């Protein structure tokens, strides 16, 4: 078998490559959502060429192979094929020339400039999409955001390439169900961020199934072949890599958007668990429970949506879509908020009617020192904003209501951001000694940056977490100071009290 | 007076004097106290919504 071959990209060429590298037929593949998804995705990315790397040894598939497939009577191959995609046209001759001729204009730089990423194809029947690292949709002027991307090095016959992505793979329904695939993608991000080993799908499934599920027989008690996990089992798999699972209900769109935004900004991919319903002629049919790794979001709503009786404005409320590694659809697949009478997400799943995803829970794998959850800071800021609003309307009637941006960050990210984007505004902030992980709260009135509050994310909730304040403009600090005496001891929230106390004017002698 | 306290003193000067008249009036105090109550009720509602029930934890995720 040739080590590589090069094809002009087309849907048919892609199908041919997938059939050739797997035990699937074209008819089987045509029924998969992945084919429709990849066709649309590569079309959007402008794919022109496929380079097929034969005999590729994929670590994750090899682990699954050693744990399961090697013991089957049927002989499955242990090597995969890796498909590389480029947005430039070139031929097999061009690539061969580049390998033997160092002076060729067709070189590593040319390849890197047009590189869109790769898809590993597993030599299995039906479930064949292995480790997949593809570039994302363009940012569209900042509307789309994929904070969790990391560089994956790719050695292509000696050419050192890289792709900024988060790895995706389809469940094989044997060593991994959707929950395992979601966890595997999630660990691709947290492994880099928190320096833990990234387990293969079979290792994740084995760790999760140390605990027999509560819901027998809906979920099989067997570890392998695996038919699915519960949230409790997924939490166990997170513990197994040395992280702490943090889980909350996300039946409300506001809670879902605000929480996923706050953690994704710190490169932590949350796992969204939801139930899929097929709505046919107004009647709901449950398809089942599903889990995906959230990888990005779109802030496509031009103004924040007011929340609660006070009309609190949170930047995360601008989210109209989230992007997810849905192992049954594809990487960075879009899930769009319906904003109708029901809080559901529209997905690429196909049913007899309209398929709706109803969020159930969000599961976050956190480094053990991130002890303060998002809601502790969010709730304090909501109370702060509520108190300030009538005062702002009276003192500064023309000042727009602040829009609050609340997210987790690291001290290094914060200081780099200060230097990169806001040197003139916040320069002194870089000189302060701060804790490694922070909750950052930024208040903007209109387009003006007014205030930054930094909270210790590693501290004790019963103690003051506010560790640093950056006053960019005087209005909001003045309002907080003015109201501090009136609300002292009445807020019923330790962190909201601490914010007012920070700004409280000194008692005159 | 340290730098932090000096900043605090300067903050107050940015507001117009009429504002303090309003803030210290019954109307001002009522507005602020109502805002506190509203926000506490919003926080309580959010807290309830974030709580998982046992069925959510045991839903089989199998697709």
How many helices of chain B? The count is: 4
Tell me the radius of gyration of chain B: 22 Å
Assembly context of the chains: heterodimer
Number of strands of chain A: 19
Outline of chain A:
globular
Helix content percent band of chain B: over 70%
N- and C-termini, Cα separation of chain B = 64 Å
Which radius of gyration of chain A do the C-alpha atoms yield? Answer: 25 Å
What is the distance, rounded to the nearest whole angstrom, between the alpha carbons of the first and last residues of chain A? 89 Å
Structure class of chain A: alpha+beta
Main beta-sheet strand count, sense and barrel state of chain A: 6 strands, antiparallel, barrel
Low-confidence stretches of chain B: 1-10
Helical percent range of chain A? Answer: 25-40%
**Coarse shape of chain B:** rod-shaped
Protein model, in words:
The complex is a heterodimer of chains A (509) and B (63). With 509 residues, chain A is of the alpha+beta class. Chain A has three domains: 162 residues, no CATH class; 171 residues, Cathepsin B, Chain A (Alpha-Beta Complex); 130 residues, no CATH class. Chain A contains 15 helices and 19 strands. The model of chain A has no long low-confidence stretch (mean pLDDT 93). Chain B has one domain. In chain B, α2 packs across α3. Chain B contains four helices and no strands. By secondary structure, chain B is mainly alpha-helical. The interface between A and B is large, with 71 and 46 residues.
Which helices and strands appear, and what pairs or packs with what?
The complex is a heterodimer of chains A (509) and B (63).
Chain A: E1 4-8, H1 11-21, H2 26-30, H3 33-45, E2 49-56, H4 59-67, E3 80-86, H5 92-100, H6 108-113, E4 115-121, E5 129-134, E6 144-145, E7 150-156, E8 159-165, H7 178-194, H8 201-208, H9 231-240, E9 244-249, H10 253-264, E10 271-280, E11 283-298, E12 321-326, E13 330-337, E14 345-346, E15 354-366, H11 374-395, E16 402-410, H12 411-421, H13 423-426, E17 437-445, E18 448-456, E19 466-471, H14 475-487, H15 494-503
Antiparallel strand pairs in A: 1-2, 2-3, 3-4, 4-5, 6-11, 7-8, 9-15, 10-11, 10-15, 11-12, 12-13, 13-14, 14-15, 16-17, 17-18, 18-19
Helix pairs in contact in A: 7-8, 8-9, 11-14, 11-15, 14-15
Chain B: H1 3-12, H2 17-24, H3 26-50, H4 54-58
